[in-house]
Write a structure and sequence with these properties.
Blueprint (H helix, E strand, L loop, with lengths): L6 H17 L5 H5 L8 H14 L2 E2 L8 E2 L1 H14 L7 H8 L5 H16 L2 E5 L8 E8 L4 E8 L4 E7 L6 H15 L4 H12 L8 H15 L7 E4 L2 H6 L5 H13 L1 H9 L7 E4 L11 E10 L2 E11 L4 H21 L1
Antiparallel strand pairs: 1-2, 3-7, 3-10, 4-5, 5-6, 8-9, 9-10
Amino acid sequence: MGSQLDERSWQLLQQLIRRYIHDGQPVSSKTLSEVPEIALSSATVRHVMADLEQCGYVASPHTSAGRIPTEQGYRLFVDHLLTTGSSVCDDMEHLKERLETRQITSDLLKTTSELLSDMTHCVGLVTVPKHNQVNLEHIEFISLNQKRVLVILVFSNNDVQNRIIHTDRHYTTRELQHAAAFLNREYLGKDLMVIRAALLSSMQQDRKNMDDLMHMAIVMADQALKVDLHQDAYLISGQSHLLNMADMTNIDRLQALFEAFKQKQILLGVLNQCIQTDSVQIFIGKEAGSDVFDNFSFVTAPYMVGDEVLGVLGVIGPTRMPYDKVISVVDMTAKMLTSALKSG
């Protein structure tokens, strides 16, 4: 029960929210009085609704059109769902099938954002781990034509990336093998921020204390790892779902939200707040810290490798989303992604 309300008020608020989520129309006192579980007269329901409106849990968009939940009302509702547990995810087998297959991390994250969108009919989001959060497992150089070298990077989170770098001369296969052996010996198992700092420090040393092969290896590794600074901050899928949900009166708000998707900083500010938690977190409307997110909600959860949080996944949808289903999907997807990364 909502701890701030008596049993009757709480039951009516829940029914109003569920009905509004389902129909998208203001709910009248007469409609609520006809719900079998309520068993109250229309006059009594009107009295309780007036009290709920005075407390800020519901609002009347028009004089006689019924009432809709406010952000405060939604907050009480979702806090109750998070405390008591939401419904079981109906698509568990589909999740297992898509996320337990062996994939490199970048493909796995893309699949995850698409799954979240498909299963909730909202926008699916997955933040991409910064590579200072994972360790280098292996580096390999392969000579290409025209003074180019293919660099193969293998990371501890099962991610494999290929980079092409340009060199000042052609290097033989043997030279590249020796360079890779040196780097694997020196930097295996270290995170990329540590490696970048060590590379920069080494490059500033007196060349007299470093043979040509060592210097060449350090320069090429630095070139290859610089690319990480420009990686996408997050993967996003299903923006078109919002167009199907919103009426034309919200088109300006939608345009502002799509612009936030492109600019990234505002959205990342919300998602980064979720990294410190170990469970589902929900932001409703202005709780996300920007007017851009009025009438929209975030449902998020962290994904991990071992005890370390790698990133956050979740969905953005209208405030009248079916929270019990969405919470279940987000929570289970985070657990399945964590499991897939662990076994990868």
